[in-house]
Design brief:
Helix content is about 45%, strand content about 15%. The chain has 14 helices and twelve strands. Helix 4 packs antiparallel against helix 5, helix 6 runs antiparallel to helix 7 and helix 12 packs antiparallel against helix 13.
């Protein structure tokens, strides 16, 4: 079975381009009847992998025919290069559906590529990451995934686990012949493989940070000039500025580049008790943004005396271990907090030290692991299974338990690429992965 209720023998049709609003759209057919369905509409197909000019319902189009298994999906594939436009693309899809094709759902083409061995599961996920990349670092990591870099790294560990498991299982019937030196060697091998998995996990957060735009949240009491400073950093008016307390009722976010790094900057409502329902709701939304911040700029105005409740708010943020920069705004009015970073939203020269402080506080992501969240989870589970196998060996608890734990570790590592060596990965997991794809991929 493939996703969205179609079966493996169905011939799928879907839009293979990102949007029907460009100059050209590609409608892809994949499956055993791809050629027959296409020829019924456009006549004889050109030679394999050669673009040919054909006519489809009065429109001149280009057609390419790619017999399996040398195609993206590993099946027979026909691509129709047509003029774009929502109505035109929809009419071509309707023609193909009427001729016997089934509508492709999210990820159906990529799923068939995986099932026919054209791509490993991590490469398929790399395609989704490539499409969804929002930063240059995310784009670079996604390209490495698609190229199979992670899969090759994973396969080394999976193969080593398989060999270790086979060696242990070969001694199950004759445990009395197992020497203490063998158990020690197996335990050392478990420790070595566990350490490799721990290296992956240790670098995961750096990789995640590189893929995401850091979220910099401006927080503080009302009338500290947060919105004015927000606008000044952006170099344009984005947030409403007023001397009236409580003007900001919702958070406002915008994209900003500092030192070549793309950030998301969020202006939030002033943190204070209020009888106004809307203002209280805005304060709560601001707190939610603080919970997901990578960096907080705590801002108070130089014309505002520090209050104990503000200090408690600032200390509560510090307790979350989110990096915080204490900023005294309106420095042109004089300074009250000499240890804080003094800035003025109306003096561009004071913003450069603030930009430098933001860049320094965020730091460089470092050399990150290109594995995604699902890969991290499987690696963590494999690490735990290896730790269990090692403990069983050290306790001489029985080779059956050791072999079981090693099989678990091998299964979890193999699930990263979809090649476990211990049976199919499972339709439920595949459904969950491919459901996140766009239609046409």
């Amino acid at each position: 079975m493939v996703g969205t209720g179609v079966v493996a023998s169905d011939t799928l049709v879907g839009i293979a381009t990102g949007s029907p609003d460009g100059g050209v759209a590609i409608v892809r057919l994949s499956g055993p009847r791809a050629r027959a369905i296409a020829e019924a509409q456009v006549g004889a197909l050109p030679a394999p992998r050669v673009l040919g000019l054909r006519n489809l319902a009065g429109e001149a189009i280009l057609v390419v025919w790619m017999p399996g298994p040398r195609s993206f999906t590993g099946e027979d594939v026909v691509e129709l290069h047509i003029h774009a436009g929502t109505c035109n693309v929809a009419s071509v899809l309707e023609l193909m559906l009427a001729a016997g094709a089934s509508a492709a759902g999210p990820g159906d083409f990529s799923r068939r590529a995986f099932e026919h061995g054209r791509l490993s599961l991590d490469q398929v996920e790399g395609i989704a990451a490539l499409i969804g990349a929002r930063t240059q670092a995310a784009l670079a990591q996604a390209k490495r995934l698609v190229a199979g870099e992670l899969g090759r790294e994973v396969e080394v560990v999976r193969a080593a686990l398989e060999q270790l498991r086979i060696e242990v299982e070969a001694n199950l019937d004759f445990p009395e012949d197992v020497a203490a030196a063998d158990e020690l060697r197996w335990a050392d091998e478990c420790q070595h493989l566990q350490a490799e998995l721990e290296r992956w996990l240790a670098r995961y957060e750096a990789g995640r940070r590189a893929r995401a735009k850091p979220r910099v949240v401006l927080a503080g009491p009302p009338n500290a000039g947060k919105s004015a400073l927000f606008n000044a950093l952006l170099g344009r008016r984005r947030a409403l500025v007023s001397a009236q307390p409580g003007t900001t009722r919702d958070f406002v976010e915008a994209e900003l580049t500092i030192a070549g790094r793309e950030l998301t900057v969020i202006d939030t409502a002033g943190l204070r008790p209020s009888d106004d329902i809307l203002e209280r709701a805005g304060v709560e939304l601001g707190r939610e943004q603080l919970a997901g911040a990578d960096l907080v700029l705590w801002i108070e105005g130089s014309d505002q005396p520090t209050r104990p409740d503000w200090q408690r708010e600032r200390e509560a943020i510090a307790d979350t271990e989110v990096p915080t920069i204490a900023v005294e705004n309106k420095a042109d009015l004089g300074r009250q907090r000499p240890t804080w970073l003094g800035v003025s939203a109306i003096d561009p020269a004071t913003l450069e030290p603030l930009r430098a402080a933001i860049s320094g506080a965020l730091g460089e992501p470092g050399e990150g692991w290109i594995g995604l969240a699902r890969h991290r989870d499987r690696a963590h589970e494999a690490k735990l299974a290896l730790a269990e196998a090692r403990e069983q060996l050290q306790a001489s608890a029985g080779l059956e338990l050791v072999a079981f734990a090693l099989a678990q570790a091998q299964q979890r590592v193999g699930e990263i690429t979809g090649h476990t060596g211990l049976g199919p990965i499972g339709a439920t997991m595949l459904d969950a992965i491919f459901s996140r794809f766009c239609i046409g991929k």
